[in-house]
Design a protein that fits this description.
By secondary structure, the protein is α/β, with parallel strands linked by helices. It has 15 helices and 16 strands. The protein is about 40% helix and about 15% strand. The termini are far apart.
């Protein structure tokens, strides 16, 4: 006999510690308990259906219960679920590595597997640092990483060291390694007395100054290409990523592209770096890699990075890093099926159509008196809601506007998860147009329900 909703809710509140969640308040709300999925909807324990407007935290690609992906898992589990990649190989990991190398920017020829976005970043940090050590750098001085303001790259300690969001990262300050920060080129809110154009010039000047003055000590530059997700979907101006690549190449600094969130079609190209013709030295992938089915991540490296780790055993150039489930066969099998579905179902053509739908809707909704800013890149859309648009004045945090909008969304049959008062619309790349329009209509109604404007 299956547990009732009340039983599940009691066990959930008593025992499950949810991520990024104020648990005392959570316990006082009736949150849906998801037990099934169907297409682009999820279904709770009472049979209510919700359109998945967050892509299951930005990782779902083709929907839920996708026949090809389900079949790939069934076929693989009939063979083997997992064996170690330490000292052994397996078919799905080799096949997926070949497929990834053919799709990412040319030159990223080597694939290191891990479990999620943060572990992919950790691997990249260690690779970059050890790369310099093998080339004769002093590890006590060549140990700085550069990040953007308001950056977010995960929640492990190394990834948090790259973070620039005080609410997430401040408390851990004494545990973190030192980084250098360059200003994030986002122009909705600029320093007092600076126009948008002046601020972007300032960002460029500071970028070049910091790299020029510190390049002998910098081990790597880490960036979310085009869009900073957890910062509220801050969209960089065209050409910024290319400028970062030009400067890091000039000063011999490895560029680490964190495509964990922006990869697999969300920005309008399969990988965000493609839009500016950028080939990073290291690229981190996760989230959409398996279509949102299983935890799997990959850190891809160029020949130059990889070659620094080659040598006989006595040279001790090995990358001593790994995870129990590195290259897990189930994850790799479903990732292969997901990549091939991009081709068979022309997913990127669907992304292009949905990009236009989102853009047209955003232009209409921009007139709303509490919409301060709308930021879009491909099928990534963010509405920043403010109390006073003319002054860019935020709502008091105590009003929890974004949270109340997400609750209103549940009543209208959608799941959205804002970042503070930034409402995020994040359709899966494969979402059909009818579902997207329904998601947008319900989002607009949820905003109206709360703001009554």
């Amino acid at each position: 006999m299956l547990p009732t909703t009340d039983q599940l809710r009691e066990w959930d509140v008593s025992h499950v510690w949810h991520p990024f969640t104020p648990m005392q308040e959570y316990a006082q709300e009736e949150t849906p308990i998801i037990v099934a999925g169907d297409g682009f909807e999820v279904i709770d324990s009472d049979g209510r259906r919700y359109l998945d407007g967050t892509s299951s935290l930005w990782c779902n690609v083709h929907g839920h219960r996708v026949p090809e992906l389900d079949q790939a898992l069934r076929e693989q589990i009939d063979r083997i679920a997992h064996s170690t990649l330490l000292g052994l190989a397996n078919g799905p990991s080799a096949e997926l590595a070949k497929e990834l190398v053919q799709r990412v920017p040319a030159g990223l020829n080597h694939v290191f597997y891990s479990d999620d976005g943060a572990t992919a970043i950790e691997a990249a940090l260690k690779m970059a640092f050890q790369f310099h050590c093998h080339r004769g750098a002093d590890p006590t001085t060549k140990n700085l990483f550069v990040r953007l303001g308001e950056a977010y790259h995960g929640d492990t300690i190394g990834a948090v060291s790259l973070g620039g969001i005080p609410a997430f990262h401040r408390v851990f300050g004494s545990l973190l390694f030192r980084t250098l920060e360059v200003p994030a080129p986002s122009t909705y809110r600029t320093p007092a007395g600076m126009s948008s154009e002046e601020y972007l010039r300032h960002c460029d000047t500071e970028l070049e100054r910091i790299l020029s003055e510190n390049h002998e000590r910098i081990a790597g530059f880490v960036i979310e290409p085009l869009v900073q997700g957890a910062a509220g979907m801050l969209v960089h101006p065209p050409g910024y990523l290319r400028r970062v690549r030009e400067l890091t190449a000039r000063f011999g600094i490895p560029l680490i592209a964190d495509e964990v969130f922006v990869g697999f079609g969300r920005t309008g190209t399969l990988f965000a770096c493609e839009q500016e013709g950028v080939v990073p030295d290291l690229m981190c992938l996760a989230k959409g890699l398996t279509g949102g089915y299983l935890p799997l991540a990959a850190t891809l490296a160029t020949d130059e990075i990889y070659a620094a780790f080659l040598g006989d055993r006595a040279a001790r150039r090995t990358f001593f890093h790994g995870h129990t489930y590195t290259g897990n066969q189930l994850g790799c099998a479903v990732a292969l099926a997901s990549l091939r579905r991009f081709d068979s179902h022309r997913v990127m053509e669907n992304v292009a159509r949905n990009t236009l739908i989102l853009r047209n809707w955003a232009e209409q909704f921009r007139k709303h008196p509490h919409v301060g800013d709308i930021r879009q890149c491909g099928i990534i859309l963010a509405l920043e809601l403010v109390q006073d648009r003319s002054q860019q004045q935020r709502f008091p945090a105590s009003q929890r506007i974004g949270h109340h909008i997400s609750r209103a969304g549940l009543k209208r049959g959608i799941i959205i998860r804002p970042i503070d008062d930034v409402v995020i619309v994040m359709p899966a790349p494969g979402m059909p147009q009818d579902d997207l329009i329904r998601l947008l209509d319900a989002t607009e109604s949820a905003v109206q329900d709360v703001l009554q404007a």
